[in-house]
Records
---
Amino acid sequence: QVQLSESGGGLVQDGGSLRLSCAVSGRTEIAGIMGWFHQAPGKDREFVAAIRKSGDFTLYSDSVKGRFTISRDNAKNTLFLQMDSLKPEDTGVYYCAADQSRTSVISRITYAYDFWGQGTQVTVSA
C-alpha cells in the first residue's frame, strides 16, 4: 500500500503564500496520478489540482488556477502545492491523494483516488 503524509499548513494573512508537501512512502511505485483536495469547514471535499506521474500534465480547479502550482519530485517521493495569493475562502484542510490505476486521465472526483493522507490545516485570515 501507499502512505501519504501532508505538511506545511499553517496560519497566513490574506494575500500570503504557503507551500504544502506530501511525503509518499510504502509502495511508492504504484502512486500514479496525485492530487490535492480542499475541505472547507462544513463542506464536502473538493478538487484543487492534480498531476500525472510523469509531471507532463496538470489540472487545476477554476478557483485556484493562476494562484496555485502543483508539482512532484518522484526521486524524493514528494508532492507539492505552492499556494500564492491566498484568500480567506482557501481556509480548510488540504489532503493529498494518489491513484494507483495507471490511468493517464486526471479525475476531479474523490473516489477516483485510492490513497489519502490525514490532511493539513490552512487558515487564511482576512
---
Amino acid sequence: QVQLVESGGGLVPAGGSLRLSCAASVRTFSLYAMGWFRQAPGKEREFVAGISPTGGSTHYIDSVKGRFTISRDNAKSTVYLQMNSLRPEDTAVYYCAGKVSVGVVLLTTRAQYDYWGQGTQVTVSS
C-alpha cells in the first residue's frame, strides 16, 4: 500500500513563503507522476502543480505560475512544493497525489491519481 505523507504547512503572512514536502513509502518512486492539489473551505479540490516521474516536465495552474515551484528527489522518494509570494487566496488544505505513470507523464486532474496524502493546512494572513 502506497502512503503519502505531507508536511510543511503552517500560518504565514501575505508575501511569505512555505515549502511543502510529501514523502512516499514506495521503492519505485521514480515511476510515479506526482501532483499537488488544494482545497479551500466550500470549494472543490483543484490541481495546483504536477511533475513527471523523472522531474523533467512540470505544469502549473495560471494563478501560481512564477510563485510556486514543484520539484522531486527520487532518491528520497519525496516531492516538494516551494511556495513564494503567498496570498490569502492560497489558503487551503494542500494534498499530494501520485500515480504510476506509463506514457502520460503529466497528470492534471483529480480522477487521474490513485494515491493521496492526508493533507496539510496552509493559511496565509492578510
